Structure formats: C-alpha cells, structure tokens
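Same chain as my last thread, 134 residues:
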Amino acid sequence: MVATERAPWQNTRVVTTLLFIFLAGASAGALSMRLFHDKIHPGGKSRDQGRDALQLFKAELNLTSEQTDKIAIVLEDFRRYYGSLQDQLDDLRSTGKSRILQILNPEQRVKFEKRMTVLAPQLAPPPPPANSPK
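reply #2:
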C-alpha cells in the first residue's frame, strides 16, 4: 500500500506556523502604524501618541517595566533610523536636481525650476514631528 503525502497547507504544523508569522507581522505593522502614523502622514496626531501607544500596549499586554524599556529603545532606534533614511532621501533628491540642472540650458532650467515649484509639495518628505530632534 502506498502512503499518500498531505499537501503542505493540510499540515497543521505548517498552517499554525504561517498563522503565527502572519499575526506577528500584522501586530508589528499595526504597532508601527499606530506609533509612527504622524511621521508618515503629517498633519495627523501628535508625536506623544507614540508614548501613549506604548503605555496602552504596556497595559494591554501586561508588559514588565523591563519589556517596556526594551520596546521603547527599539521604537526610538526605528524612529532615528527612519530619520536617517529621510536625510539620505533629501540628499539624493538634491543631488539628482543638481545633476539635471547641469544638463539643461538656461531656458530649460527656468522651466524646470517652475515645474519643480509646482511638484515640490508632492515630492517633499513629510516634515518631522515638532518634538523630533534632527
């Protein structure tokens, strides 16, 4: 008699592992969006919401003070890393614009600058939160 193998999605261990990974990712994404929504989408709620969310999770997840401190450090590192990436993007935009201007003739430069004035608000990075050191 030939044993039939079950398809991977029928293996409860595989399904449980994938479900756990999905839930962990969804939780991390939800936490990130909750803490950094105002950074990603300016004009939103204040930066203090990040601290409020951390306190909310501390209560809901019953975090110890050690866990809370460690999570706060991770989130602060993420905020700094995000700011560093934003600075690099600013440099990249500036370099690209300079290189384009070197290629254009004076008449084209004027038109390009006018176009950039119109596009600038769409291309500009979101402003840093009020309490954020740069």
